[in-house]
């Protein structure tokens, strides 16, 4: 990896460990009973060691260490046991033969173990496998306050000072956003309170959704004005934020705020603070969608001016088929490090241990024709669901249940791969109907039984007679079990992975890339104005890279509902599915389902997969029940606040139904 940024972060944290009270400040102390007992709350707003903080800003070197501490709270997305967006959704399911799930926090979420006494992924307190976002905000406030004071850090030049302040403002906005999308109306911590603050000042309360959104958007605007256009020192600064990241994350914030969960949601009409203040605006506003669309377009225009563009796979020395070239463009948009589509990649908690752990869950058991190499394959712990496999389009670019030219009524029907299909399915091998006649993203994103899996170390140096997957019962064996549904996250495995030496290629987690921004723009514009020209333009750009016809051509020529794309409701459905396919396994769909208010449908019902223990295709390709999920409506749309925190700060109110 080119960046030394993560090493700097780790060094800064370690160097401050003896004096970490600077970021472990006294939390809100409120008397619970009229004696001497006190408890702490999650809101880290009162500093307790002013002298130690002052020492952190005596020089540029020490101040930069503190800035890296602000970065260190970024989420650990490359580890599925921390990545709520991936693990809590319906894209993947975890294999658990030894029933270890109960001891692994985030993996309990889709099994219905969330609670208010000790919440899983507690973004407020930073417990149970989540970052402490309010502590992060407090450190950002400390940094901004001190670096803004020109009597401190005297060896810091004005341009660097402004940039560092902007970075901290961006991070402060992002940590507020992490809290907002999980909890809705949250307390805003704009400044840390003085150490002698009164009890009434300390007892902060939740702020209305619209106020929270405007505050975060304002922080992103302030940051964007002073952030660098690009990272020039790639040797040491890759992973730090830029103006493109600020504009894009503001766009995502505003799309989230305009979505049904937060925009005129009747479920929360009676949700109020204890003083009667309404926390959700009960009135739907189409203007919020237009504001979001405008922010998306501004971000797109700026990104494109900086030569950020959809990734395409460069022509290799050894020629590949167009089929494989298209797939490599899709795969590498996620896992090729620092590619031209990446707007913001997370590296702060993305060291090689986490990244290899994530990729080991994507590496399949292959027909290596080499026993020693086969033994070195890793044990995947989770993999895509059968539902996710069915969600991908046909080769004609429409859903399998809409294609009038292809019959997918029996997805388990057996069929043999032909010579013309050899770049997707091993020629002469038998597999299920589901695996034939699918869009390029199906073959780029999913590893499946008898599927071809081209890698840089292809034994033939090309995509002819390359690696392919065996994924049935005794073919794999107990030493390297396949995921519980029979599919692998092929897309997330960097194509330079070395099977024999188990060598992983570290890459930044794609928190925001251009295709995400294109689809956010199409969604917001469609909701604001209906399916106008730009709605199609930006969806079709993503589809073109994926080797698909335009929305108009696909639905007109192949769908049983040929006019679907001509209505706002029809395009809404198309765009939502497009986001789920283009961004699969990147941690977006779960949060999308929440903001769309479709989680009540999508996260209820059965998780299914193939009967992976069987050896024959006739028995293997039987759909079986793995788990029955339950999503409680409307309770589960918002995270619970820990009950003890409500006792500490009696101005706080719990989210409904917890």
UniProtKB/TrEMBL annotation:
<keyword id="KW-0472">Membrane</keyword>
<feature type="transmembrane region" description="Helical">
    <location>
        <begin position="21"/>
        <end position="37"/>
    </location>
</feature>
<comment type="similarity">
    <text>Belongs to the SusD family.</text>
</comment>
<keyword id="KW-0812">Transmembrane</keyword>
<keyword id="KW-0998">Cell outer membrane</keyword>
<keyword id="KW-1133">Transmembrane helix</keyword>
<feature type="domain" description="RagB/SusD">
    <location>
        <begin position="341"/>
        <end position="658"/>
    </location>
</feature>
<feature type="domain" description="SusD-like N-terminal">
    <location>
        <begin position="42"/>
        <end position="253"/>
    </location>
</feature>
<dbReference type="InterPro" id="IPR012944">
    <property type="entry name" value="SusD_RagB_dom"/>
</dbReference>
<dbReference type="Pfam" id="PF07980">
    <property type="entry name" value="SusD_RagB"/>
</dbReference>
<dbReference type="InterPro" id="IPR011990">
    <property type="entry name" value="TPR-like_helical_dom_sf"/>
</dbReference>
<dbReference type="Pfam" id="PF14322">
    <property type="entry name" value="SusD-like_3"/>
</dbReference>
<dbReference type="GO" id="GO:0009279">
    <property type="term" value="C:cell outer membrane"/>
</dbReference>
<protein>
    <submittedName>
        <fullName>Starch-binding associating with outer membrane</fullName>
    </submittedName>
</protein>
<dbReference type="InterPro" id="IPR033985">
    <property type="entry name" value="SusD-like_N"/>
</dbReference>
<keyword id="KW-0732">Signal</keyword>
């Amino acid at each position: 990896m080119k960046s030394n940024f993560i090493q700097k972060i780790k060094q800064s944290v370690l160097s401050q460990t003896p004096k970490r009270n600077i970021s472990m400040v006294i939390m809100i102390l409120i008397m619970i009973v009229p004696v001497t007992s006190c408890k702490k709350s999650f809101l880290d707003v009162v500093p307790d060691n002013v002298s130690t903080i002052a020492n952190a800003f005596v020089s540029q070197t020490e101040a930069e260490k503190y800035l890296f501490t602000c970065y260190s709270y970024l989420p650990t997305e490359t580890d599925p046991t921390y990545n709520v967006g991936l693990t809590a959704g319906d894209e993947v399911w975890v294999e658990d033969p030894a029933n270890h799930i109960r001891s692994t926090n985030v993996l309990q979420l889709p099994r219905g173990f969330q609670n208010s006494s000790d919440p899983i992924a507690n973004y407020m307190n930073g417990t149970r496998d989540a970052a402490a976002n309010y502590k992060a905000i407090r450190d950002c406030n400390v940094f901004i306050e001190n670096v803004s004071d020109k009597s401190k850090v005297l060896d810091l030049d004005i341009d660097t000072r402004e940039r560092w302040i902007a970075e901290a403002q961006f991070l402060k906005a992002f940590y507020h956003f992490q809290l907002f999308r999980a909890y809705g109306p949250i307390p805003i911590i704009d400044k840390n309170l003085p150490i002698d603050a009164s009890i009434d000042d300390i007892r902060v309360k939740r702020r209305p959704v619209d106020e929270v959104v405007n505050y975060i958007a304002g922080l992103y605007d302030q940051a964007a004005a002073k952030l660098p256009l690009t990272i020039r020192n790639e040797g040491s600064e890759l992973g730090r934020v830029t103006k493109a990241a600020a504009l894009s994350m503001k766009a995502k914030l505003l799309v989230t705020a305009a979505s049904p969960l937060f925009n005129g949601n009747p479920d929360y009409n009676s949700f109020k603070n204890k003083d009667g203040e309404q926390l959700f605006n009960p009135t739907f506003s189409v203007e919020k969608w237009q504001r979001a669309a405008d922010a998306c377009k501004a971000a797109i225009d700026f990104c494109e001016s900086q030569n950020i563009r959809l990734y395409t796979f460069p022509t290799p020395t050894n020629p590949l088929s167009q089929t494989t070239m298209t797939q490599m463009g899709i795969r590498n948009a996620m896992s090729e490090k620092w590619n031209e589509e990446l707007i913001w990649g997370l590296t702060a908690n993305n060291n090689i241990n986490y990244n290899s752990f994530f990729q080991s869950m994507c590496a399949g058991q292959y027909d290596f024709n080499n026993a020693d190499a086969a033994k070195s394959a890793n044990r995947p712990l989770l993999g895509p669901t059968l539902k996710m496999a069915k969600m991908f389009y046909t080769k004609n670019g429409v859903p399998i249940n809409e294609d009038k030219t292809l019959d997918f009524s029996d997805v388990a029907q057996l069929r043999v791969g032909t010579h013309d299909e050899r770049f997707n399915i091993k020629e002469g091998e038998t597999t299920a109907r589901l695996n034939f006649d699918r869009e390029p993203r199906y073959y780029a994103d999913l590893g499946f039984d008898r599927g071809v899996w081209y890698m840089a170390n292809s034994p033939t140096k090309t995509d002819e007679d390359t690696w392919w997957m065996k994924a049935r019962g005794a073919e794999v064996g107990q030493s390297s079990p396949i995921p519980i549904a029979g599919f692998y996250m092929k897309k997330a495995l960097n194509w330079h992975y070395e099977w024999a030496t188990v060598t992983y290629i570290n890459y930044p987690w794609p928190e925001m890339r251009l295709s995400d921004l294109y689809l956010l723009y199409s969604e917001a514009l469609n909701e604001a104005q209906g399916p106008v020209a730009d709605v199609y333009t930006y969806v079709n750009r993503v589809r073109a890279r994926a080797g698909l016809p335009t929305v108009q051509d696909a639905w007109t020529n192949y769908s049983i509902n040929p006019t679907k794309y001509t209505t706002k409701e029809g395009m809404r459905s198309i765009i939502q599915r497009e986001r789920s396919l283009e961004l699969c396994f990147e941690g977006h769909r779960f949060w999308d389902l929440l903001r769309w208010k479709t989680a009540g449908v999508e996260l209820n019902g059965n998780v299914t997969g193939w009967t992976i223990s069987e050896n024959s295709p006739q028995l293997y390709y039987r759909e079986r029940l793995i788990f029955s999920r339950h999503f409680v409506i409307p309770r589960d749309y918002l995270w619970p606040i820990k009950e003890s925190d409500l006792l500490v700060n009696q101005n706080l109110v719990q989210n409904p139904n917890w």
